[in-house]
Amino acid sequence: MFSTLEARKNKLMQTFSKASATPSKSALTAAILVASLGYFVDIYDLLLFSIVRIPSLKSLGLTGTQLTDTGIFLLNIQMIGMLIGGVLWGMLGDKKGRLSVLFGSIFLYSMANIANGFVHSVESYAVWRFIAGLGLAGELGAGITLVAELMPKEKRGYATTIVASVGVSGAVVAYYVGQMFDWRTSFFIGGGLGLFLLLLRIGVAESGMFSESKKASNRGDFLALFRNKIQFSKYIRCILIGIPLWFVVGVLITLSPEFGRVLRVQGEVSAGAAVAWCYGGIVIGDILGGLLSQRLKSRLKVVYLYLSLSALGIIAYFSMYNLTLPHFYWLCGGIGLTAGYWVIFMTIATEQFGTNIRATVTTTVPNFVRGAVVPLTLLFQFFKNMYGGNIIYSGVTLAVISLSVAFYALSKMKETFSKDLDYVEEF
């Protein structure tokens, strides 16, 4: 009887502990607000380079094919920074907390943005794009992890939808800022927005799940993911399902001026406008995908749907010739809509792993997907040379590869909707 009473007492104490750790409504609102606006500035800076690539490089004296080749080089440098930063910030998020990463990353990419406005050579441009990449790597993963751990499990999809939807709209704002201001001023504005955001940090609470996970000895052990075959396979699958989305953004949209000429678009395609239209579509896609996921109570069904729609969108992109400029931009918006499963992709990665490694996974996975631009662009150039300079054939080949690996990875994933996240991984 004593043991029974003791067990009941322990259960009541655990229930009381969890209840006391439940965050207030104001704390939840503050976390969602800061994570959303942080991602907004993150996307603003991440896509600003694609928007101002041509005018900024022209002002540095580059012309012709240098605009494409140097642009790809700088984009790759930024993505390499994000790959390295993703690992560092992710480990720090599991060791020191989600908030330290959230605000530390915002500060770093804000300062890099400001410095980027002062560059006068490709070399200095590359240095600050790399540092910006380091900073940009941390905010999204920390923000999504924090919000997912604070929200009730049945409703976390709504919160992550808000974060992603507000965030990706930063690309649209970046386009209009890039149109209204000089490229240097556009970078200054991005840096200023980030520093201003740091003033909102008051009232944001740390995740209670993280506090409990401090007892685990293997917090933030990135290499542990590679030592366990099951965890490694799950981790790689999380990355692969996001590849088509970044293929669309990093190749089809970033290089839309080059594709537009080959597709005989009636007018000169602006990369900035293409980015804005694409991300406008992604915003709508993220909102619809998040709500549909809650309605169907499934993450995987929604991703299957979006991958299928992405395949149709990519086919339309490569097969429609002689479009007017407005129609081409509508096509960019449409292909963005079909690729708008970023919020579901991020939520799946967050829900796959325990609290002691969750920030590491949630931070590194999107950055490895973004960093996939490096091998994607290298493969694009390889296929372009193989096909005698034909960028359409090169793009189609790359699209088939990206979609194939994503569908395969998704077929091996387990459903995570309403999964309890309050646990640690045993490696």
What does this structure look like?
The chain has 427 residues and is an all-alpha fold. The chain has one domain (29-204, 222-411): Growth Hormone, Chain: A (Up-down Bundle). It is built from 20 helices and no strands. It has helices at residues 2-21, 25-59, 65-95, 98-116, 122-150, 156-168, 170-180, 183-197, 208-213, 224-227, 229-240, 243-253, 256-262, 271-296, 300-319, 325-338, 342-351, 355-371, 373-386, 391-411. The longest helix is centred in the first third of the chain and has 35 residues, at 25-59. The chain is globular. The two termini are 37 Å apart. Mean pLDDT is 84; it is low at 1-20.
Question: SSE layout and pairings?
Answer:
Layout (H helix, E strand, L loop, with lengths): L1 H20 L3 H35 L5 H31 L2 H19 L5 H29 L5 H13 L1 H11 L2 H15 L10 H6 L10 H4 L1 H12 L2 H11 L2 H7 L8 H26 L3 H20 L5 H14 L3 H10 L3 H17 L1 H14 L4 H21 L16
Helix pairs in contact: 2-3, 2-4, 2-5, 2-6, 2-7, 2-8, 2-14, 3-4, 3-5, 3-18, 4-5, 4-8, 5-6, 5-17, 5-18, 6-14, 6-17, 7-14, 11-18, 11-20, 12-19, 12-20, 14-15, 14-16, 15-16, 15-20, 17-18, 19-20
